[in-house]
Amino acid sequence: MTAEPHRTHPCRQCPRRRDADLTAFSDADMAKLTNANGTTGSEADTGAPAMSCHIDQPDTAHPMRLCAGWLAVVGRNHLAIRIAMLAGTLPPDAVTAAPDWPALHPSLEALLTERARQQAEQPQPTAAEQPAPPTPPTHHYPVLRTPARER
């Protein structure tokens, strides 16, 4: 039986951390979190994706370890994670935040609310700071000359 690779502590930029800059994450990232979300009474089924740490990438030293913050908040409510724990491929403590961890958003809703707040507080560039709109390309069309008709 192969153990499920997982992080044992949230990374510095984990979106589940309350101190994370959530403006650094795209709407596509938020959609991934939504698709992998489960809550008590509305568990994510076995076909729902599991969240890997966003800094882990294929073909690196630590490809695709499960996110520690996501496991601590969602893991108990994700059926595939619970099956992995029952099968012994994921330790039960993987779904519990350790006492020395940073504070985590307790739910996806709290995370999305905080992201919206952070986005609203981002300074908007002044007109002087905004780049000039691109100059449209100049199209050179050939001038078609029709021969003069003889009369």
TrEMBL record:
Residues 119-130 have a biased composition (Low complexity). Residues 107-151 are annotated as: Disordered. It comes from the Bacteria. This is DUF6283 family protein. It comes from Amycolatopsis nalaikhensis.
